[in-house]
Structures are given as structure tokens and as C-alpha cells.
Amino acid sequence: MTTTTTFHGLGADNTLTVYADGANELLNQSISMINAYAHLLSLYDEASLLTLINKQAGKEPVHIPVRPVFNLIAQAIAWSKRGLGYNALIGPIVKLWRIGFDDAHVPTAEEVTAALALTDPDLVELDSENQTVFLTKSGMALDLGGIAKGFIVDQVYDLW
């Protein structure tokens, strides 16, 4: 038996197909999981955990209550430190350009220089024991983008 559902989430339309009996329950669990993780990791949800981390930049560490999410953030910071083109702290640059919004524009060189100073992954303090993340400078911002989406897909895969 094949069951397919399409829903909007993670900023896109998604289609899930299950080739098994009892697919509706699995699809419902999957969509609930996707929405729960999206709520934690979205930059565009004012109540998300990621938004809270960014708002607390330069103020105080934020406890990450879900261990896999803490591990994802720690992995993203580790990848960022490798200097191979990925930087989870690109948030200030994205915000500066207003990428994806109607008022997107090219900033001045001075604005870019100031924003780049907020993208250093060495300025992130991770406490694995207490599961906290601290962006040590005000204005820093995590943007997990596609890595968050890949993580969520991996979680659904593990559910299946």
C-alpha cells in the first residue's frame, strides 16, 4: 500500500510517501516531528530556540533542552571552524543584505567589515555537560539553514 501526503514546512512544499500498511500514523508522526524541529531551528519563528540563542548573543548562554539539537549546533560550529566555506554564523551577513526579502540591497564595505567581525566561530562557547550555547558578542547570529533541514530529514529517516 502506498500513501502520499504533501504539506508546507521548512519554508517549502514537502511530499512524503510511505510504501507500507499503517502509513497514515507514520506520516502524521513524521509531520509532527518535522514541525517540532522546525519550530526549534527556524530563524523566521520569533519563538524558536534559534531565535532565542541569537537574541541572547552577548548576554548569556542558552540551554538547549534537546540533545540532538545541541549536537547539531556543536557540529555546525565545528564545521565552521574548518574554514572550508561553511559558516553557521553567517546570520549577520544574511541580515545585512536582507537576502530573500523585497528590500534586499548591497551594503557598504564598512557594514560588511563590521558584520564579518561577528561571524567568527571561535567566539561561540559550547558547554556539552550543561547543553548551553553562548554567542559571546552582541549581534552574532546562528543561521543553520540547509544543515537544519538535512538534520530534520535524518531524524525522519531514523523514525522510519
From TrEMBL:
<protein>
    <recommendedName>
        <fullName>FAD:protein FMN transferase</fullName>
        <ecNumber>2.7.1.180</ecNumber>
    </recommendedName>
</protein>
<keyword id="KW-0449">Lipoprotein</keyword>
<keyword id="KW-0460">Magnesium</keyword>
<dbReference type="GO" id="GO:0046872">
    <property type="term" value="F:metal ion binding"/>
</dbReference>
<dbReference type="GO" id="GO:0016740">
    <property type="term" value="F:transferase activity"/>
</dbReference>
<dbReference type="InterPro" id="IPR003374">
    <property type="entry name" value="ApbE-like_sf"/>
</dbReference>
<dbReference type="InterPro" id="IPR024932">
    <property type="entry name" value="ApbE"/>
</dbReference>
<keyword id="KW-0274">FAD</keyword>
<keyword id="KW-0285">Flavoprotein</keyword>
<keyword id="KW-0479">Metal-binding</keyword>
<dbReference type="Pfam" id="PF02424">
    <property type="entry name" value="ApbE"/>
</dbReference>
<keyword id="KW-0808">Transferase</keyword>
